């Protein structure tokens, strides 16, 4: 890991890196990681995404999605975080400093459309570790072809013929 990080620093791929040197240090890193979303709250609204792209596409996705979001909402502050080496990205975007929180959050769908467009251009998925869920339920048909949707419905009907597992949530 030190070799990889050293090369990344030399090539300008990263600005800084730290490796945990003890279990306590590791716990401290996880504490920071686990509280990122909460730390965004004092900054106002945050539009959140849980997306995935092929690992090799992560840097390009972050650059392109960040630029697209800032073009759409000048002053928006992309904050990608959460994973190393698996293609999953928590792509949160904090509102511009001084912006009206409610007005910013009212653009959730518009911002998500831009982010998801970049995801799809990299052959990724609008969902990663947290799945489709209720919020992305209506977006699924736009990013999956009809055959995939039909297959998912058939699988759901086979595994849940009485429709009692998570009714009305996704399929």
What does the secondary structure layout of this molecule look like, with pairings?
Elements: H1 2-10, H2 23-34, H3 36-40, E1 46-47, E2 50-52, H4 58-72, E3 77-81, E4 88-94, H5 101-105, H6 108-121, H7 140-143, H8 146-159
Antiparallel strand pairs: 1-4, 2-4, 3-4
Please tag this protein with its features.
171 residues; alpha+beta; 8 helices
Written account of the structure:
- By secondary structure, the protein is of the alpha+beta class.
- The chain is built from eight helices and four strands.
- Strands 1, 2, 3 and 4 form a four-stranded antiparallel sheet that branches.
Biggest sheet architecture: 4 strands, antiparallel
Number of helices: 8
Kindly state the number of beta strands: 4
Percent of residues in β-strands: 5-15%
Mean pLDDT comes to 90
Shape: globular
Proportion in helices: 40-55%
Rg over CA atoms = 19 Å
Low-confidence stretches: none
Quaternary status of these chains? single chain
SSE pattern, N- to C-terminal: HHHEEHEEHHHH
End-to-end distance: 42 Å
Structural class, by secondary structure, is: alpha+beta
Structure at a glance:
With about 170 residues, the chain is of the alpha+beta class. It is about 45% helix and about 10% strand. It has helices spanning about 1-10, 25-35, 35-40, 60-70, 100-105, 110-120, 140-145, 145-160, and strands at about 45, 50, 75-80, 90-95.
């Amino acid at each position: 890991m030190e070799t990889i990080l050293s090369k990344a620093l030399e090539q300008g791929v990263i600005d800084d890196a730290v490796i945990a040197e003890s279990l306590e240090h590791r716990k401290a890193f996880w504490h920071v990681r686990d509280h990122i979303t909460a730390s965004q709250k004092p900054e106002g609204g945050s539009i959140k995404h849980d997306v995935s792209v092929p690992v090799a596409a992560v840097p390009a996705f972050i650059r392109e999605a960040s630029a697209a979001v800032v073009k759409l909402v000048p002053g928006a502050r992309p904050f990608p975080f959460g994973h190393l080496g698996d293609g999953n990205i928590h792509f949160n975007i904090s509102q511009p400093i001084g912006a009206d929180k409610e007005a910013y959050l009212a653009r959730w769908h518009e911002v998500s459309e831009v982010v998801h467009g970049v995801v799809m251009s990299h052959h990724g998925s609008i969902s990663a570790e947290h799945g489709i869920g209720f919020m992305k339920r209506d977006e699924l048909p736009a990013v999956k072809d009809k055959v995939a949707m039909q297959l998912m419905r058939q699988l759901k009907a086979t595994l849940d013929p009485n429709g009692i597992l998570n009714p009305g949530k996704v399929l």
